Amino acid sequence: MSNVKVKIALADDHTLFRKGMISLIQMVNNSHEILFEADNGIEVQHKIDPLSLPDIMLIDVNMPVMDGYATVDWLKLHHPSVKVLVVSMIQDEESIMRMIKLGVKGYLSKDVEPEELKNAIAAITSKGFYYTDYITGKLVHSLQQEEDYAQKDALIPLNAKEKEFIKMACSEFTYAEIAQRMNLSPKTIDGYRLSVFEKLGVKSRVGLAIYALRNGMAR
Amino acid sequence: MSNVKVKIALADDHTLFRKGMISLIQMVNNSHEILFEADNGIEVQHKIDPLSLPDIMLIDVNMPVMDGYATVDWLKLHHPSVKVLVVSMIQDEESIMRMIKLGVKGYLSKDVEPEELKNAIAAITSKGFYYTDYITGKLVHSLQQEEDYAQKDALIPLNAKEKEFIKMACSEFTYAEIAQRMNLSPKTIDGYRLSVFEKLGVKSRVGLAIYALRNGMAR
DNA sequence: AAAAAAAACAGGGAAAACCCTGTAAAAATT
DNA sequence: AATTTTTACAGGGTTTTCCCTGTTTTTTTT
């Protein structure tokens, strides 16, 4: 650990919890400096000093006025160098994924041991992130869900021409232009249109395009 | 660790590497049983015994005839209980993400210390997965890339009604139905259509839907 | 209060998409 | 070789989308 103090700031609407965290952080050793604390995102915006940005910000998800998501989003845009460690009671996959996608460097439960909080801050300082097994598990699970969802198409038998037609339909070409490009008559294309509409259960070309994009049949 | 041996199988086209791995695994302690080894995915399909499935399969990405992806995909479908640990020289984000999405429980480089291989097998056996910091980093990075890509829309000034229209247009409603639902005349909707077409540079409703989905303006 | 800008609406027409029913040729089955 | 299935294609009509040129009403600015 270097001789420069790690600068930390906190955003959490529960004063008692916030004060507790601060005392915990300072108890560990004196290599951490608390820059400021805030009740919510708006206060963060006012209290943050561009000339002395925190290295790490501990942020809660649930806060009044401006919640954790909005706060992280704002930080990402205005002070991207600030590394965010979420500390929240909320542990559901959706919140975790949303925060990870916003670029947070760690996500802890509020009932972890003080030791783990220390480890998290140390890891984020040294290698840039700290994801527990729980978080990693959620992350991977979510990815696989997406993928599984995107593969029900294998259940619907579509031949090569139909798949090609679907890809072509996900564009601004007219059916007449698609016919040209596939060397088929517009009437044949109309036949493919009808058959894929029925197979996929869509009622319009827009519906088809949406279905295809959502299910990875076209990019 | 229980008294039942952990059953392991390997798929890698490099015989020497495979043999080395086996000796390493058996050297650790005698709690591991090697069920079989295979040159590629096809051999896995033939050698695997549904009555005595491996707990963990070590699989390489690059293999002739049937590669790692196809092998994992096959295992996922036919023997989902088999936990896959990828061991490969390939370490790029795309391969890693593809394998993770296929549900592999770990991904190691071929030049890790034997100690880490041991840890990985132990972790997968006990808690179900083993992702190194490197893999976790790639995972999170890939997620954030996706999200960043999906947010350039803020650059184009669209008012609330236009955004609502775009969402509605990403459906199978006709413009007349959209007009009803937004309590506006079809002719007004036609005006919104023209203005968003121009702002987003699209030429048809399908083009609009594709643009909106790709840029996160509609789900 | 007047001027300017934005939002809502309209007529009308051409092009594209949609949706029937039906036929001819090629390919696969038997 | 005969039959069935699949693929390719057509006529013709309805609806929807697209696109042009406007007017009226509401909101914002000065």
Description:
- 2 copies of one chain form a homodimer.
- Chain A is an alpha/beta fold.
- Chain A folds into 2 domains: 6-146, Response regulator (Rossmann fold), CATH 3.40.50; 152-214, Winged helix-like DNA-binding domain superfamily/Winged helix DNA-binding domain (Arc Repressor Mutant, subunit A, Orthogonal Bundle).
- Helices cover 52% and strands 12% of the residues of chain A.
- Chain A has 10 helices and 5 strands.
- Chain A has helices at 15-28, 41-47, 68-78, 93-101, 114-127, 133-149, 160-169, 175-181, 186-200, 205-214, and strands at 6-11, 32-38, 56-59, 83-88, 106-109.
- In chain A, β1, α1 (15-28) and β2 form a beta-alpha-beta unit.
- The longest helix of chain A has 17 residues, at 133-149.
- Chain A is elongated, with a radius of gyration of 25 Å.
- The first copy, chain A, starts with 5 loop residues before the first strand and ends in a 5-residue tail after the last helix.
- The A-B interface holds A 97, 100-103, 127-129, 131, 133, 136-137, 139-140, 143-144, 146-147, 169-172, 202-207, 209-210, 213-214 and B 97, 100-103, 127-129, 131, 133, 136-137, 139-140, 143-144, 146-147, 169-172, 202-207, 209-210, 213-214.
- Chain B binds a DNA duplex (30 and 30 nucleotides) through residues 159, 161, 174-176, 184-188, 190-194, 197, 203-205.
